[in-house]
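Hi U.,

Before I forget, here's the chain from the pilot set. I'm dumping it here mostly so it's searchable later in email.
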Amino acid sequence: MQQEAILLGSEAVAHGVRLCRPEVISAYPITPQTHIIETLSEMVDDGELTSRFIKVESEMSAIAAVLGAVSAGSRSFTASSSQGLAMMHELLHWYAGARLPLVLVNANRALGAPWNIWSDQSDSFSQRDTGWLQIYCETSQEALDTIIIAYRASELLMLPIMVMIDGFILSHTMERLLVPDQEMVDDFLPPYQAPYKLDPDKPLTFGAAAQPDLFYELKKTMSATMLEAGPLLKECERSFAAIFDRAYEPVIHCPEGDEKADTALICCGATTGTAREAVKRLRQENIAIDLFKMRLLRPFPQTELIAALEGKKRIIILNRALSYGVGGTLSQELRAALYNLDRRPVINDVIISLGGREVFPETIMDIVKRRKELSPTASNWL
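Structure:
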């Protein structure tokens, strides 16, 4: 059974975590993530969740605490945002290199300076090379479901997974959704059985130094696992769909789009909802445009993306993160993925929202209508 509820996005995330039965939770408050950890702490205090809740003095301490907990064999959880995620940077590398599973939820928020509490995706995009899988959610329902899927995939891969929700747009907005019963989740996600852990009776070395040749081989193995992560994640998503009747893919074709159109919009995260409305209105004006959502950023779903974009002559990428001196970060990922095609589509790199700048359906409609004026070689700013 699944119960219908109306929840803030942060509360939906907390319920997703609760259903996965983590044994240890540690996080430090930071807007707009704070509601997640507040809700989880209330669940622990009320006895709804039997987890060890560790209060810490910083985000670095939060991820260090769960690093220790998972090393000892416990399923754990943490969350952060913006400067907090940046503060975790050192241990993000360490976590993936140690081949330990974890689910971390990041409420996307701009990085300063100047100081800004609103949403863009610069914080998580800047961590894409740390060895974590990265999944971006459009809705709170998707976020709740993705946490459950992510724990299963993470513990099979022995790699950590970062799940993104757009700050305020999802975290502080109420949504009608379905919350699965505990029994359904328990059937999908068995208790974590650590293949190696800290144990006085079976001593192992954790965090030892590695000579160059061994270091190289370990990184090679980690890279190979990341390449295998895409198919395994898809298998986890198919298993989830069979039980919960909600399906997810690395690259999602939005039904509002026109498959026959030679131009496609690509979005990532909650902006997709705005783009859906824009595309519907454009179709009413007899303007054909297709629409795709990038759900998975790492590992990058190159094969699925190429198949999805077959026959397209122009791709308009709506970026909410910027690589200074190069352009929109998502645009660079797509350019690399499509580079070896014999017939590459024109790619229009559009910087649509940084620091929470509002994006309305009319904004996206105007971009599409002016598509022939967009530069194919430079970033297009609104």
